[in-house]
Amino acid sequence: MTLIAAPPAPRPTKTILRALAGETLPVPPIWMMRQAGRYLPEYRATRAQAGDFLKLCYTPDLAAEVTLQPIRRFGFDAAIMFADILLVPQALGSDLWFVTGEGPRLSTITDAAGVAALRPAGSVHDTLAPVYETLRILRRELPAETTLIGFAGAPWTVATYMVAGRGTKDQAPAHAMKQADRAAFAALIDRIGDATVEYLSAQIEAGAEVVKLFDSWAGSLRGQDFDDFAVAPTARIIAALNDRHPGIPVIAFPREAGPRYVGFAAATGADAVALDNGVSAEWAAMNVQRAGPGGCVQGNLDPRHMVTGGPELVDETRRIVRALAGGPHIFNLGHGITPDADPDNVALMIETVRAGG
Ligand code: CP3
User: What mean pLDDT comes out for the span 170-182?
Assistant: First the structure.
């Protein structure tokens, strides 16, 4: 019997995919969290046309349009599909609506009966099919060099909204349910995790080339809770995706994880970790970034510079580019751009990064 070695995977050519594969590039590729959003007049116009935010998420032509707007205006290296992490709870059976000026509202889940009443993970496609159509449109319309990113919320962050029925400062309702009935809370995390695997797999099949898991509230988990509800569910999702779709990189964003950023990629199998602006780029270069696969970091300019601009924006951008130049790096903000940001400051950030920092 002759054994023939599998041919090596072709080397990616898009800059974001090269960085995620562990390559150190002379200029870091760049995209921006919430790059499609209210700071852009063209977004506000399309959103007005859609009528409301959820309608925008579920209308593929309009969702694709707002995804493309920042690509046309700024030429980012990646487009992130337009949707929201709270579509998954809705697909699992939670009621969801957005109150203008306040944010999301959901029906609440507080006990084992509430978890048991959720729909099965495999049924999420019934609700989420328009998102897959958005991705198919984007794959046709994006420039050849632009990477298409899909995403979902990580189970802990999604659970905090499902339990509280809204955003909270300290995620107290989710912590309370976790303490009152850890098994029921773990079942909720598992159900969200299963749904997330289904959702991200379908996104990849529809054309997503990278997926990102947003764990915006990871920083409120401590000790064993961080291992059980941030690390373990993320690791389980990534293992299932690697199994179904080998070669599709995953970016994990355990926001405000602080020292728990160290080893997070290795513990979860993530190809990159996104850094919030609470950690310094110099610290991350020493403690988080590694040469080669799994060592890529993304981040981490404070989004307030998109509001304030000026020499501070240029200095901070340069500092981050230089601090992380020794390894694989994707330039980004440390959190989403805010509605009061000035698009000219975004252009200045990109110009500074592309000038080599
Ligand atoms: O980054 C992108 O451009 C892609 C689209 C995207 C949105 N939300 C669009 C959005 C992504 C990736 C998200 C993720 C998301 N949504 C997170 C995780 C990231 C983070 O910011 O920490 C969270 C926690 C949510 C939940 C959510 N959605 C909240 C709390 C709110 C209200 C707050 C606000 O900014 O108004 C939203 C609404 C939302 N999602 C908007 C956008 C553009 C604003 C809605 C509008 O146009 O009125």
Answer: 98
